[in-house]
Amino acid sequence: MESGTLRKLSGGLYVYPKETAFGPAPPSDKEVVTAFLKDKTFLLASPNAYNSLGVGTTQLYDKTVVYNHKRHGEFQLGNRKFAFRVKLRFPKSLTREFLLVDLVNNVDQLAEAKEEVLKRVAEHAAKADPKLLSRAVREYGNERAKKFFDRALAPRELHAA
Fold first, then answer.
1. Which of 18, 90, 133, 150 could serve as 67's disulfide partner, Cβ 3.0–4.6 Å?
2. Higher pLDDT residue, 5 or 135?
3. What is d(CA 65, CA 96) in angstroms, rounded to the nearest whole number?
4. How far, in Å, are 34, 35, 65 from residue 71 at the CA level?
5. How far apart are CA 10 and CA 61, in angstroms?
6. Which residue in 138, 8, 17, 112 sits closest to 55, CA to CA?
7. What does the pLDDT look like over 83-126, one tens digit per residue?
8. C-alpha span between 9 and 131 (Å, rounded)
9. Residue 144 above 50 pLDDT?
10. 3-state helix/strand/coil string of the chain
11. Band of the pLDDT at 160, cuts 50, 70, 90?
């Protein structure tokens, strides 16, 4: 550490920065979380990803959510904030359907007007692939999300018969 080759990110977590033409490059979030958990089974997500859904979320958040099987809590690793959440199940990568379900699971933590966002989520749910969305709800939704999507998808299923 004295020669400057290793840098401390947090208690017991060190990084060997890669040199670029512009100086030392910080490690990726994936590298930091892999070292912290000593495991590669996790999903990096962010409330910022909800903005890509077109449901009226526009806020920018300064922390990354890490769905994993080991740790729970808020941790500062280097100059980044991570919210670790222990979940039994999560997909290998972010999908539109997972993000819709995750948004409803976490709507109380968002800065936007809850009712407006949920109204738009229901509209998007009506246009989504029913099989993919139903599977995401079944696998990743909490009770509130399951009830919400049952109501949001019910009219379409009645008309499809």
1. 90
2. 135
3. 16
4. 12, 13, 12
5. 21
6. 112
7. 999 999 999 999 999 999 999 999 999 999 999 999 999 999 99
8. 43
9. yes
10. CCCCCCEEEECCEEECCEEECCEEECCCHHHHHHHHHCCCCEEEECHHHHHHHCCCCCCCCCEEEEEECCCCEEEEECCEEEEEEECCCCCCCCCHHHHHHHHHHCHHHCCCCHHHHHHHHHHHHHHCCHHHHHHHHHHHCCHHHHHHHHHHHHHHHHHHC
11. very low
The domain locations on the chain are 7-160
First to last CA, the chain: 67
The label of the residue with tokens 């977590």 reads 13
* Both tokens assigned to 35: 């070292």
Contact 64, 47 (CB under 8 A): no
Q: How far apart are CA 105 and CA 141, in angstroms?
A: 6
32: exposed, middle or buried (Cβ count in 10 Å: 0-12, 13-18, 19+): buried
82 pLDDT higher than 60:
yes
Give the mean pLDDT of the chain: 90
Cα torsion 135, 94, 15, 79 to 10°: value is -110
Per-residue burial over 104-135, b = 16 or more CB atoms within 10 Å of its CB, e = otherwise:
bbbbeeeebeeeebbebbbebbeebeeeebbe
